[in-house]
C-alpha cells in the first residue's frame, strides 16, 4: 500500500508470543461492569490462548479507573507478577469528570510501569459513548482486553531480551 493512497487502518501487532510461565495480575475497574466484564473475558482468554496457566493469572477488582494506578503500583512492588493488565472504561458524561479520570488513570499507570520496571498495559477504554465501549469489549478479535493482555506479554519478552543482552555484555 502506498503512503497516502489509502487510509491506513489501526491494528495491533499480530505476533503471538508465549505467556507460558508468566505471572500476570489483571486489575479490573468495576465501574461500567457490562464493559469491564467483556474486557476481562477477552484478557483472560487471550492469556490462556498464549499459554498462560490460569492459576498464575490473578484478577483484582477495584471500584473504578482512578484506583488502578495505586493498586498497579502495589502489585508491581509485590514482586509477585511479571506484568500487569489494567482494565477499565471511562465514558464521557455531562461534566469534565471524564477528562480528569482518564488523564489520571493513564498517567498513573504509565508512571507505575516506568518507576517499577514492571510492564503495565493500558486496557482502559476512554470513549464518548457506551456503544463505542461495548464494541471494543465484545467477543471479537477487536477486544481491547485481549489486546492489552497481548501487549503485556510482548513487553515482558522485550524486557527479558534486553536484560539478557545487558547480562551477556557484563560478562
Structural account:
This protein is of the alpha/beta class and 171 residues long. It has one domain: Lumazine/riboflavin synthase (Rossmann fold). It has helices at residues 33-49, 68-78, 97-116, 130-136, 144-169, and strands at residues 24-29, 57-62, 83-91, 120-127. The protein has a four-stranded parallel beta sheet, sandwiched between helices.
Task: Outline the fold blueprint.
Blueprint: E1 24-29, H1 33-49, E2 57-62, H2 68-78, E3 83-91, H3 97-116, E4 120-127, H4 130-136, H5 144-169
Parallel strand pairs: 1-2, 1-3, 3-4
- What is the count of structural domains? 1
Largest sheet: 4 strands, parallel
Radius of gyration: 17 Å
How many beta-strand segments? 4
Brief summary of the model shown:
This protein has helices at 33-49, 68-78, 97-116, 130-136, 144-169; strands at residues 24-29, 57-62, 83-91, 120-127. It is of the alpha/beta class and 171 residues long. It has one domain (24-169): 3-Layer(aba) Sandwich (Rossmann fold), CATH 3.40.50.960.
Which features would summarize this protein structure in a list?
4 strands, Rossmann fold, 171 residues, globular
Amino acid at each position: 500500500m502506498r503512503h497516502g493512497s489509502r487510509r491506513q487502518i489501526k491494528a495491533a501487532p499480530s505476533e503471538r508470543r508465549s505467556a507460558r510461565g508468566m505471572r500476570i495480575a489483571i486489575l479490573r475497574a468495576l465501574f461500567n461492569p457490562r464493559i469491564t466484564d467483556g474486557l476481562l473475558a477477552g484478557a483472560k482468554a487471550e492469556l490462556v490462548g498464549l499459554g498462560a496457566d490460569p492459576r498464575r493469572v490473578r484478577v483484582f477488582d477495584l471500584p473504578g479507573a482512578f484506583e488502578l494506578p495505586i493498586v498497579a503500583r502495589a502489585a508491581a512492588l509485590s514482586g509477585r507478577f511479571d506484568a500487569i493488565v489494567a482494565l477499565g472504561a471511562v465514558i464521557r458524561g455531562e461534566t469534565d469528570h471524564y477528562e480528569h479520570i482518564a488523564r489520571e488513570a493513564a498517567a498513573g499507570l504509565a508512571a507505575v510501569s516506568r518507576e517499577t520496571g514492571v510492564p503495565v498495559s493500558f486496557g482502559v477504554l476512554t470513549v464518548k459513548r457506551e456503544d463505542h465501549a461495548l464494541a471494543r469489549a465484545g467477543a471479537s478479535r477487536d477486544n481491547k482486553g485481549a489486546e492489552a493482555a497481548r501487549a503485556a506479554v510482548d513487553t515482558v519478552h522485550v524486557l527479558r531480551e534486553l536484560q539478557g543482552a545487558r547480562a551477556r555484555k557484563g560478562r
